Amino acid sequence: MSEMHADVVVIGGGLGGVAAALAALRAGRSVILTEQFAWLGGQLTSQAVPPDEHSWVERFGVTASYRALRDGIREYYRANYPLTDRARRTRDLNPGAGHVSRLCHEPRVAVAVLEAMLAPYRGSGRLTVLQPAVPVSAETDGDRVTAVTVRHHGDDHVLTAPYILDATETGDLLPMTGAEYVTGAESQAETGEPSAPEIGDPANMQALSVCFAVDHVDGDHTIDKPSSYGFWRDYQPPFWGARMLSWQTPNPRTLQLSTRSFTPNPDDDPWLVDADQRVNPGDGNLWTFRRIAARRNFTDGFYPSDICLVNWPMIDYFEQPYVDGPDPLIVEANARELSFSVLYWLQTEAPRPDGGTGWPSLRLRGDVTGSADGLAMAPYVREGRRIRAEYTVVEQDLSLSVRGDKGAVAYGDAVGVGMYRIDLHPSTGGDNYIDVASCPFEIPLGALIPQRLENLLPAGKNLGTTHITNGSYRLHPVEWNTGEVAGALAAFCLDRSVTPRAVRNTPDLLAEFQAHLITDGVELRWPDISGY
């Protein structure tokens, strides 16, 4: 068992973990970064989820380093892909012309850009990346975490640092370190949230999804019939209003049954796609909703087909909780069976507009998602463990119906900004969608400070939110902002020999830290705009 030491240890190489590592490295600190899967980037890459972003992302509302990531993705396409002249000249290039985001792209491109952002620090020796690696245990001394043991290629490594950051997808370090944390849904009596249930349930969490990519080319590419296909084909959740494998699904905002369309390779113009969630959620046609490669953005014939990323209501697995359940591996296996069943249904039985059934020419693109079985290499986990923090963000802080013209709560300890509707998918407790308009909000430093532990910081979706507000804080740019602040805070505390708690609760230190963030390109306030 080897021992490794750095100024900052970041466990988890998703978006928050990479942002945390970069922030600490920019501040001159050494970092050990670990990641379970073959790709860094988490929900953007190994989970294959195109970025979910707010409507103003091209102008403001994200950190400078997140903007550098987005710009890098576009430049990678311009440098390496045979784009049409029009696509190449477009400043706000959307390679997939998807409706969910102004930047829909293939996950492998984001991997390349993230690796390029980290490369100088690897070369200098200030960054060590252990990959694949998973945390297996942690040691504590009072209110401090002294070490985390990770398993890397069958060997255990003991990692030590003055600051340990948990950037895992599910908050894996929280139970290992004895940190106070919550899971699932809090009761309305506990949080006062209008959308919270009357009775809390720690096992009531948002659905897990295993995404996949498909294109539509000549030939019969039908997969083998999944063993559980019969169950999923006939399954109708009590609140769904139709069979789950159908074009009818609840509308997240109204809960009324709505009918989606599906048209592989429509003869549409990528130039005309306006990915603006204020105007249209974009999920009417499922092919273009999360399309990650629009063939008409590339020279004629280079892509024989668009590439469509399937992250649709039908693949949401909400039968069992994934986090703190009896066997997460079984839950993931079941979610993968559901995704394969959806693909098989699409290929064989899905109703077509011409009256036929199935598209056997749909081809699973595991080469695009980088996985052995053809699906995304990692499950998309919307909700995991969350720290009990000095401050917990509640629905009343950002709900448009609650706050109205006042806008979201302005925090004195703001360390970033975010914006997304409070968007909860169906849950393991039998809840339907919860989709609530929100105001552009600030990220409070108090949500990153554990109630007790002094040197463990959340660097992703595990900060101090509730089941409800996690629906706004779980998206790509907010996760990145959270991680970036955690990494910057660790470096700031090391430089001044202070604790994160002292930074938040000492006015002069807080003002200095906020000024540092602003200098580093982290926005702390929104202009005068309305939510949606």
TrEMBL record:
SUPFAM superfamilies: FAD/NAD(P)-binding domain. Gene3D superfamilies: FAD/NAD(P)-binding domain (3.50.50.60). InterPro entries: FAD/NAD-bd_sf (IPR036188), NadB (IPR005288). It comes from the Bacteria. PANTHER family: L-ASPARTATE OXIDASE, SLL0471 PROTEIN. This is FAD-dependent oxidoreductase. It comes from Paractinoplanes bogorensis.
